[in-house]
User: What shape does this take?
Amino acid sequence: MSMQQGLQEQSISHLELKTLQFTGFVYMLKAVLFDLDNTLIFYDELKFAAMFFPGVAVHFADLIPEGKFAERLMAATLTAHKNDGSVTNRELFVSEFIRGTNLIPAEVWQRFQQYYDGDFDNVKQLVHAPGNARQVLESIHDRNLKVVIATNPILPFNAQLKRLSWAGLDGFPFDLVTHIENMSFCKPQLGYYRQVCDLIGEKPENCLMVGDDPANDMVVAKIGMKTFQTVDSLKHSEKPLEFSKQVIGNDTDGIPPADFEGPLACVTEAVESLLY
Assistant: This one.
C-alpha cells in the first residue's frame, strides 16, 4: 500500500515508498534536513499571535506604541523574507524595524533577546509535537548522517533552541540549526537551501529535505535535493494567519511531486531506501 493509504487507514506496518530512478551517477545520502513548524511542532497560529505580539510589545512599550509595534514587526519580517544574501537576516530585519526612527540597532536587538530568553516560554502551552520526533532523528544520526533543522530563519538562535526543546529535541547534536543570525536568505528562496548546503559541506543532491509545505520545503527539488513531504499536519485543524500566508506564499509552479510522502514516522524507512 502507499504511504497515503497507510495514513488514511491509520495502520502502518510497512509502507511502499516511491522508487527513485537515478542515471549517470551513484546516489549517496549524506544529510537529512528537517523543517520545524507543522513538521516537528504544531500550534494554533491565531492563539500564538494573540500571545506573542503583546508579549514582545511589552519590551518596547517605552519606545513604540503598542498599536504600531505589530505593524513594524510584520513589515520587518516580510522584508527579511526577501533578503538577497547581501547581509544577515538579523541585520536586514533590524534595519527595517527601526526605519524612520532614532532607535539604536543594538538596543532593539537586546530587547528582542530579552523577550525570547524569558516571556517566550509562555507560548509553550500552545505547542504540541509528535511523540516520535526524537526517535526518528536519532535513528538518522545513528546512521552517521548529518541532521539539520532547516526552519525558516526569522527567529534568533535562543528562540529556535526553545522551540526544539518543545519538540523533545533539547540537547540533540544537530549539525546545523538555521536562525536569523546565521542565514542570509529565507524560504522559499533556493539561495536559502544552497547556503544550508554550503554550511554543512554537502551537495544538494546528497541531501533529503523533510517538511510539510510544498512551496517552502519541496521547492528544494529544483536544485536536485530529494524530498519527503510529511502529512502529520493534516490531522490538525490550525489555520494560518493571513500574515503567514503572505510570508509562506503558495506558488508551487515548477515544483515536482515529493519523492516520498507520509507521516514523520516513515522518514526512517525513506532514509533506508536511499542508503542501499
The chain has a mean pLDDT of 87. The chain is about 35% helix and 10% strand.
